[in-house]
Amino acid sequence: MSRIALRSIIIAIVAASVFLVATILLVRWRSQLITQTVQVPIDTIALPLDANGHGLQIVANTELSVTLSSYPPRANTVSTLMLTADEWKTHAAREVTPTLEIAALNKVDAVTFMMMRITPGHYAASDIFFPARGPWRMRVRMTLDDGTPYTMLIVAEAK
Hints:
Oligomer: single chain
CATH superfamily of the largest domain: Macroglobulin (MG2) domain
CATH topology of the largest domain: Immunoglobulin-like
Number of strands: 9
Strand order of the largest sheet: 1-2-3-7-6
Largest sheet: 5 strands, antiparallel
CATH class of the largest domain: Mainly Beta
Order of helices and strands: HEEEEEEEEE
Number of helices: 1
């Protein structure tokens, strides 16, 4: 009788071990499927602006700060977009070559503005005009000082 009980215990331990190993393998396999990275182009993610029209991104060790004057922008009024490019740790000015493109959110064609260098690392696009109310897409295209091209997407609602 004790042999049958011992055999039953051994069979139960082996079955539990097989079940435990199968569960661990299944969880690891499932977690590998879930943690796969989804590549999303960063220029499809809009930079949020705060209540003062200010936004900040860090890309390739460069801190990119933008400020849109008269935020939220008003239709049929001019605005200015300021861009500051600094090294994110030391805050030393970084040289970039920015241009600004503005288009209605539902349009492909954009108006291009040159961003003028004010001081090292500081740029401005003046006389930005939003001809109508509604959402507008602004793309700041630039080449960072290490030669990396980058596009910053900003969406603003003209009132």
